[in-house]
Design a protein that fits this description.
Strand order of the largest sheet: 8-9-10-11-12-13-14-15-16-17-18-19-20-21-22-23
Structural class: alpha+beta
Strand content: over 45%
Helix content: 10-25%
Largest sheet: 16 strands, antiparallel, barrel
Shape: elongated
Number of strands: 23
C-alpha cells in the first residue's frame, strides 16, 4: 500500500509540473506599435540627463495607434526650461536631481506632453523657414530659421538622436506657453524725465527682414540680395535742406554659411574706407568681433575686440571688450524667461540678445563697477511692452514702451 501511495504522489507531482510548464510556455500578448514606440522613446530619452523630467513623465503617456503610425518627433524641454515654467517650485542641486525630475514631471500632463510631440519623423531638412506643424495636442508650431538656428515658436531646437521611426530634439522653453504668431517690434518710445525720443522700424513686406530704422536725426536703410544682407546705408537729417544725407555705407561679406564674415565701412562723401569689422564663429555662434579704423588710406589700426559668452538659451551672458594697452571691460548680463523683443527679427549682422530680455547687467572695469536694473511689463504673449531702466551711477530713469506688429 505504501508503495502505491508513493507511486500516486509521484504521478501527481509530474502532472502538476506538466501543467506548470504548459502555463509558463504560454506566449505573452504581442506589444502594440504604440507601446513599442513609447518604450523605445523612453529608452532614448533616459540617455539624456538634461531632460530627466520629460523622460519621467513620458513613461506614462498614452498614445493611439493612429498617432504613432508615421513615427514621432519629440521636442523635449530641458529641466531648466521646466523650472521656469512654474518659477520657484523647487531649487536645484546635484543632490536633488531626482526630486527635481519628479516634481517637474508632475507639471507635464498628457496634454502638455502632447504639446511637444509631432506626427512624423521631422529631420532638420524638413524644418524650413515658415513651415507650420500641428502637435498631437493641436497646438500650432511655426518654424523660423535664423542663420544656423532652427526655432519652433521662437524656441531653439538642439538635435539629440534619430531612427527610422523617431526624432528627438531638446528645447530651452516649454512650448505650452509659446505662441505661433510672430511679433516684430516697430516702434520704441524713450522717455527720460520729460524728454521723448523715438525709434521706428520697418520690414521688407511679409518677412522678418528689417527694411529701415529711423531714430531722431539718423536713419539706416537695409539692402538685400534675396534674404542675405548686402549693404546698410546710413543717413543723417539735413535740417536746412530738410532731407536725408548719406554719410556711410556698410558693405557686408558673408561666409559659406550665410553669416557675416566682414563689414567694410566707406564714407559716402568720398568713397574712402573708414573702418572694418571681422567676425569669428565657433560651430554654433558668433564668438568675437574685431574692430579696425583706417588712419590712412592704406593703414587700419586695430582699436578693440568684443568677445562673447552665452548661456544655455543662446543669450549673451558675458561681453568682454579688449583694447590694446588697456584693461578689459567686462559686462555680465542676466535675463528673464520671456520672449525677447527681437526674437523673430532676422540677424542684420549685429549681435542682438534675442531669445530673452536683459533684466540686469553689471559693468566691471578697474576704474568702476556699474550696475543697471530693468523692470519689464509684458503683453499676453509674453513680449515686453514696457521697460524701466535704472543705473547705479545716475538718478535718471529711462522708460521705454514697445509697439509690435503681428505676422
Amino acid at each position: 500500500m505504501k508503495t502505491f501511495y508513493t507511486f500516486l504522489l509521484g504521478v501527481c507531482a509530474i502532472a502538476i509540473a506538466l501543467v506548470s510548464c504548459k502555463k509558463s510556455s504560454t506566449p505573452e500578448p504581442e506589444k502594440t506599435k504604440s507601446e513599442t514606440v513609447i518604450e523605445n522613446l523612453t529608452v532614448e530619452l533616459a540617455k539624456q540627463p538634461e531632460v530627466a523630467a520629460f523622460s519621467e513623465a513620458f513613461k506614462n503617456i498614452s498614445l493611439s495607434e493612429e498617432e504613432v503610425k508615421d513615427g514621432l518627433t519629440i521636442l523635449a524641454p530641458t529641466d531648466e526650461a521646466l523650472k521656469s515654467y512654474r518659477p520657484n517650485t523647487v531649487s536645484y542641486s546635484k543632490n536633488s536631481a531626482k526630486i527635481l525630475a519628479d516634481t517637474n514631471a508632475q507639471k507635464l500632463t498628457q496634454e502638455r506632453l502632447k504639446d511637444h510631440i509631432v506626427r512624423g519623423v521631422l529631420a532638420k531638412t524638413d524644418l524650413t523657414d515658415g513651415k507650420v506643424f500641428t502637435s498631437l495636442s493641436g497646438k500650432v508650431l511655426k518654424v523660423t530659421v535664423d542663420g544656423q538656428e532652427i526655432k519652433i515658436n521662437g524656441v531653439t531646437l538642439t538635435f539629440v538622436s534619430s531612427s527610422d521611426s523617431q526624432m528627438i530634439y531638446t528645447i530651452s522653453q516649454v512650448l505650452t506657453i509659446t505662441d505661433s504668431k510672430i511679433y516684430l517690434p516697430v516702434k520704441f518710445t524713450y522717455a527720460v524725465d520729460t524728454f521723448l525720443s523715438y525709434q521706428n522700424i520697418t520690414y521688407v513686406e511679409n518677412t522678418q527682414l528689417i527694411s529701415s530704422i529711423e531714430e531722431g536725426m539718423l536713419k539706416r536703410e537695409f539692402i538685400y540680395h534675396g534674404d542675405k544682407l548686402q549693404k546698410v546705408i546710413r543717413y543723417q537729417k539735413d535740417m536746412v535742406a530738410k532731407e536725408w544725407r548719406k554719410i556711410y555705407e556698410d558693405i557686408y561679406e558673408l561666409n559659406s554659411n550665410g553669416d557675416v564674415n566682414r563689414i567694410n565701412t566707406k564714407r559716402a562723401s568720398n568713397g574712402e574706407n573708414s573702418s572694418y569689422q571681422l567676425f569669428t564663429y565657433n560651430s554654433q555662434r558668433l564668438t568675437s568681433v574685431q574692430y579696425y579704423t583706417y588712419r590712412t588710406p592704406e593703414f587700419a589700426e586695430h582699436t578693440y575686440t568684443n568677445s562673447y559668452e552665452y548661456d544655455i538659451f543662446g543669450n549673451i551672458k558675458k561681453l568682454i571688450e579688449s583694447r590694446p594697452g588697456s584693461d578689459a571691460l567686462i559686462v555680465n548680463f542676466e535675463y528673464d524667461n520671456k520672449n525677447g523683443i527681437y526674437k523673430y527679427v532676422k540677424n542684420q549682422g549685429g549681435n542682438l540678445n534675442k531669445n530673452n530680455n536683459v533684466i540686469k547687467n553689471s559693468v566691471n572695469h578697474p576704474n568702476a563697477v556699474l550696475l543697471s536694473n530693468t523692470y519689464l511689463e509684458y503683453n499676453s504673449a509674453g513680449y515686453p511692452v514696457k521697460y524701466i531702466a535704472t543705473s547705479s551711477t545716475t538718478p535718471v530713469t529711462t522708460t521705454v514702451t514697445v509697439e509690435y506688429i503681428e505676422q
